[in-house]
Amino acid sequence: MEYFESVEPLEPEYDWDVEELLERSQEKERVRLEAELQRVEVLLREREDIHEESVEELESKLEWYVGRLEMEYRRSKNRERIAELKSEIRRFYSELRDLEREKWLDVQELERDRRRLERELEELSGQDLMRELLEE
User: Fold this and answer.
1) Is the model's pTM score more than 0.70?
2) Distance CA 135, CA 23 (A)
3) pLDDT of 8 above 60
4) Angle, helix 79-135 to helix 18-74, in steps of 10 degrees
5) How far is CA 54 from CA 44, 46, 67, 82, 102, in A?
6) For 88-114, b where at least 16 C-beta lie within 10 A, e where not — what string?
């Protein structure tokens, strides 16, 4: 006796529609991808806001130190104090450059994620179109 001869046919309540399962699976995947894409968009906006706040704060501190340096040049010309102020100014410029570099890297990573998600959504749409064409 072969194995297949002993298998009973599935009862109607267990009869699965493969197309329906595939459609449900693809719809769940589409919803997941769209939610992930939205999350990436939100992260991009949040990162931009955080970056702007950080830059504004550093620029404000930088302006204060530049003002103090100009005042020091006009008043006392204390070389030690001037050197300290210049050092602080260089540090703030360095922090600004670091912030820009970090933002660029962060945005690149999020943009890469966004492109991947958009590509996956396009692939799902292509699969839907292919299935529709085959059904006709």
Assistant:
1) no
2) 13
3) no
4) 160
5) 15, 12, 20, 26, 12
6) bbeebeebeeebeeebeebeeebeebb
CA distance 121 to 34: 8
Q: Residue 113 to residues 15, 48, 73, 100, 116: CA-CA distances in angstroms?
A: 39, 16, 50, 20, 5
Q: How far apart are CA 26 and CA 120, in angstroms?
A: 11
The Cα-based distances of 75 to 62, 72, 83 in angstroms read: 20, 5, 15
Residue 125 CB contacts under 8 Å (≥ 6 apart), including other chains? none
Residue 131: pLDDT band with limits 50, 70, 90: low
| Structure tokens belonging to residue 134 | 């085959």
Query: In degrees to the nearest 10, what's the CA dihedral of 97, 101, 103, 108?
Result: 160
